[in-house]
Amino acid sequence: MEDCTVVKVDSVNKQGLLLEVVQVMTDLNLFISKSYISSDAEWFMDVFHVQDEQGKKLRDQNVINCIQQAIGTTRESTPSPPKARAYTNNVSKADHSNEHTAIEMSGTDRPGLFSEISATLADLHCNIVEAHAWSHNACLACVAYISDQSSHTPIEDPHRLASIEDHLITVLRANMEPSISTGPFQIKNREVKTGGFLGGEGTMTNVERRLHQLMLSVRDFDGPRSSSEMNITERGTKMAVSIENCDQKGYSIVSIECKDRPRLMFDTVCTLTDMQYVIFHASVASHDGRAFQEYFI
């Protein structure tokens, strides 16, 4: 373990605690090379082997202190209800000095959609300060930060916010056909929410956390596999996900093998948590650029 730092977490367990701990490390751009997770009798015990961005052991005492403080705060905090709207003004840039209005969008993706969204916001005299979007299986999730075009201040007028929502919903629904738009589920999944000015300190993982939730709300997993995913398989890059049910023990085993990348564990734990699964045990390892993950849920 000379090339990594071992982080151990022992705490009273609560739903979502694992995700909060993993998010702390992801916020600090730490690479989790190995991890063992166990929760028995309402107790949470985790071991993480982490490295810095250069693949080295952590030697900066400030970073180590930050981990201890952040995880300690996470353990002591009481669960809070999920926020339905945006959550931060400081996103990926630490020097944001202005306050912005947050907008969430989810629905069906199509070519040219972002151009239409940008044009609509420009017509409504809005500046796009920052935007983050995911698209998968023809589903779209987007978190954007806007300000008033003339004053560069957050937009707080409820009537104007309602107008922005209505215009963007019209854009998202522009490709709806009668054959697919008659059901309430289809309409409900084309959503726009404005958050007004929301205070607080945030990071890129807060945005990605919300994007995960938005993609789940539009059920991006229901669609067919994209051609890009098929091409990865055809090029010989092994990518496998299997689920084994253990009825006698009352849980299922989710096994994942794929190319390793930063934030992979965060994305996996996000997905399982958002689908309301409890992770009882888990083991994660990385070797020669490959990731091997096993979750008992």
From TrEMBL:
A Pfam family recorded for this sequence: ACT_6
Domain ACT: 102-183
Keyword Repeat: yes
GO molecular function list: amino acid binding
Keyword Repeat: yes
InterPro entries found in the cross-reference section: ACR1-12 (IPR040217), ACT-like_dom_sf (IPR045865), ACT_dom (IPR002912)
Keywords: Repeat
Function: Binds amino acids.
Name recorded for this polypeptide: ACT domain-containing protein ACR
Species the sequence originates in: Populus trichocarpa (Western balsam poplar)
